[in-house]
Write the structure tokens for this entry.
Amino acid sequence: MLKLVDKLQERFDTAMANVFTLSPTEICNYKCFYCFNKSAPPPLPNTKIAPPQEIVKSVDSLSNCVFVNLSGGGEPMLYPDTLEISNMLVEHGHWLGISTNFAIHDWAKYLEHIPPENVVLISASYHSPSEETAPLKKQFFHKAQWTRDHGYNTSIKYIAHPRRIRSGQLQKSQEEFRRAGFRMLILPYRGPYEGKSYPAAFTDKEREIILDGMDRPFLFDPSTTFKGRVCDSGCRMGWIYRHRTPHVVRCWYGESLGTIGDVQWQKTPQTCTTDVCPSRIYMREIGMIQGEPDLRYYFWRDRHLNNHETLNWLSKKHGIGS
Ligand code: SF4
Ligand code: SF4
């Protein structure tokens, strides 16, 4: 494991660690009660957004691309070409970050041509259907253990919805994963619940529970924005997001950089023009917002070493906290 961490440091030390995110589908096999997708436009049919070669060509055109993030908005494993695209990315020397709810039946087959050395992280999201349904729960734990035992850096993600905290479910699941040797990383719920708006409405006690299970600082104040700040996304980050198909965009809400397979990367960092950043903390930690500390390596190191060192380091060095 340390070997990959060292390789990551080498890349972060020598390159501008660029990131490409691929969110190929909004289709999902689950219907979680807290899904942010509910407020999104209805899913498009699960047709292909572009030939795999064109998608990979877009990634290749981003110089110094450190890793490709296969992420959700739906379940990325349900996109028809995910296997082919992943294999091609590995053949082209890219590293992957994979988010999944472990929905696909043949998970082992998916990983067949993707060696652990090419995977920065497998983020397995433990969603409410898995938590509340015995066979799905068993299946989830089995896949998580299998993945870890085969040498993949595996982390468990959990959405902290107020209902999951107040019922004690979060704490129960946290303990179950702890016993299975996993650290369950918490992501705070964002959205409405019982007439209140979250994450701002979390109580002090709930914030304590949430922060204790996070591997990064979190801003509960939703008014934080980077609008008007200079941001490197568009130079160092691109996104294929299904609702914006067939374009590569600067970020989730950002401008188009051209069509898939014909991307015109911005030559210099541009001002952010949107009110909502796809992930305020994430963009800051990966060094996209100019003038903010570049925290990339430290977060990845923590995830590999499975500790809280970064939070301590951050509060000492940069005074960043919740
Ligand atoms: S697994 Fe994710 S995308 Fe699917 S319904 Fe649940 S929260 Fe939404
Ligand atoms: S929304 Fe976030 S990632 Fe996009 S341009 Fe603005 S600051 Fe950058």
